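Incident review: delayed structure delivery

Summary: a single-chain prediction request sat in the queue longer than the usual turnaround. Root cause was a stuck worker, restarted by the on-call engineer. No data loss occurred. The affected request and its eventual output are reproduced below so the record is complete for anyone auditing the incident later.

Affected input:
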Amino acid sequence: SRIGLPTVFVRLTGCPMRCTYCDTAYAFSGGSNMGITQILEKVASFHTHYVTVTGGEPLAQKACHELLEALCDAGYSVSLETGGAMNIAHVDKRVSVILDIKTPASSEEKNNLWSNLNHLKSTDEIKFVLCNRQDYDWAKQKLEELKLSQKCPVLFSPSYQDLKPTDLAAWVLEDQLPVRMQLQLHKILWGEKPGV
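Output delivered after worker restart:
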């Protein structure tokens, strides 16, 4: 829902999952230790209203909830990108949650915490990253079986260099699915570079 809007991404280190298509393995470890005040100062230096907290898996960090609350209190429009394996029940209600549902080709399907669906708001989003036609068919089944599009917007995103966006678009149109396609705009604009 924010694609194309200038947004600051706060990438937190660490992730308990190892998705086959992960494009941020550099976030598994390393990074810089920063306190919440330092993060707020850095975010303010970009002069934008939108902030996305991502990872790795942000919820794996103990202070993530405190960071989300501080960003909201500072007046930012905040979203959280989460892999879907950790509980979102206690995420600040002002935060827009973008919840991944891991598909079979991700090799992390077994870690989907399905109870998270009960905590989604209509302003949140569900995202499927799709690697192939089998993933698409699986996601389509989950979409219908769990009535996901009645909960919040649903995004189908082709895994970069695994699934052609034109193929995914054709399937979505053919099946008239109530989903939005999501492309990784930063990769289209700047390629696969960390930090953009």
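Verification: The mean pLDDT is 87.
Action items: add queue-age alerting; document worker restart procedure.
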